[in-house]
């Protein structure tokens, strides 16, 4: 098998002080496996499909957000052309991403894109890439915990946190991966694109990497909006959080609010982005997920405990909400017995 019929592709792996080393080094090791590991499909002496450099604004040691030093091997002012640029996960402080910290790097990213490079982000690395404006009017993904912050900072970017990998642009030169270890999907995609599907599968096997083919919806935790400033709706949300399993919860919320039904429903949607019944359903499904993870209760019993007498309806709702059936969710996310004690 010829792993790389078109020669070696140069990969620029960006290091900034906000970088998370687990992602940075994970990407480096997986893409560098052709040089460091005995892959079964590689012919003796065959050239690696990737040459990888950790790059930054200046050569030398850099203290990462993880507290682990990273050595920048090449500075951006020495790189006139590269094939692939990857910005790994960055750690956002409570106040969010600070724009304008890396103007030279942002300019360099635009130049590399114009010269044909594929521009990639892993997880929250999209915050830096979005500064280039290249993703304006394009689709992207990000860790679901950062989706609101990204939307607020860059409203022109189409955000899909439920998707593990998004490939955008007329030349498919803009690639983003979602939450945390979806850098697996990013790396495997790049290997498949430049070295072939068989090579990608071999790397996946050696490192036990996985494609998140069911998407990220099963991993996402519902967190209803509370920054809307509507005290009446906030009160209803607080009550629903503790009483979602009761019969007719929406009617009870309306009664407790002292608002007219139409007014309550309109204000609820404006405040939370969801209808009252959809909001209750999300709370119920979230509780069901915890029960599936931590107990041996049957799906029928869990259905009843979260507020549904019709377990068939519950199963349909669960799959529609999470993307997988309750049984499949339990198999994937169940806490092992040796951990539960």
Describe the fold and architecture:
The structure is a single chain. This protein has 341 residues and is of the alpha/beta class. The chain has two domains: 9-219, Rossmann fold (3-Layer(aba) Sandwich); 231-340, Homeodomain-like (Arc Repressor Mutant, subunit A, Orthogonal Bundle). 43% of the residues lie in helices and 13% in strands. It has helices at 21-31, 33-36, 103-114, 126-130, 147-153, 183-195, 197-207, 231-243, 249-257, 261-272, 276-294, 299-306, 311-322, 326-333, 337-340; strands spanning 9-14, 50-56, 60-63, 69-72, 74-75, 84-87, 118-122, 139-140, 158-159, 165-168, 174-177. The strands form three sheets. Strands 5-2-1-6-7-11-10 form a seven-stranded mixed β-sheet, sandwiched between helices. A two-stranded antiparallel sheet has the order 3-4. A two-stranded parallel sheet has the order 8-9. Strand 10 and strand 11 form a beta hairpin. Helix 11 runs antiparallel to helix 12 (299-306). It is globular, with a radius of gyration of 23 Å. Mean pLDDT is 93; it is low at 1-5.
